[in-house]
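We give this protein:

***
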Amino acid sequence: MVVGYKSQWKFFQCNAAKPDKHHIKSFGLVDSVTGYVLDILTYFGHNTSCNLECNPGSGIAMMVFDTLLANVGRCHHVFADRWYTTRILIDHSRSQYFTGTVQINRKYFPAELKAQPLVHMEACFHKTTDNKLLFVGCKDKKTRKQLASFLIAQRLKWWRPVVEGQSHLPSICTTST
């Protein structure tokens, strides 16, 4: 979440691509149905008040998730953008359902998803051998941009491979990741 800000402040962020060039960066836990903000965490550089009991090498994303989800029960569905999505975070937050976009060049993601060339509006699907994660790659309108989403694949009982004559159903390839 970014909050537009025009005055002086030590921790403001600057992004020339945004309509409000100067803003306050904050992390929020928001209900997707009502839009109600359940919790908010403001970015203060290295002094951001995160849960510092996480692994030191885990990164800021895991600290932010642990802090925001501390008062939330299990089995909720979390939607996040590509800044948060790392394989370490996904494996750490197995008590929550997680869906998010990913940067293709990040570590610990299937090589098949990275290397497979896609045409516009085409998708490829890969699942882990333990059936815990489903990777979906699709070509966006912009060239060379691929998106991947994560779902816990155990809940997808309706998923079945493509049979001849029914090309609208996706095929799933098992990957060793």
Q: What stands out?
A: The beta strands are 2-4, 13-14, 22-30, 37-42, 77-80, 97-100, 123-128, 134-139, 146-151, 173-175. The two ends are 31 Å apart (CA to CA). The helical segments are 60-68, 87-92, 111-115.
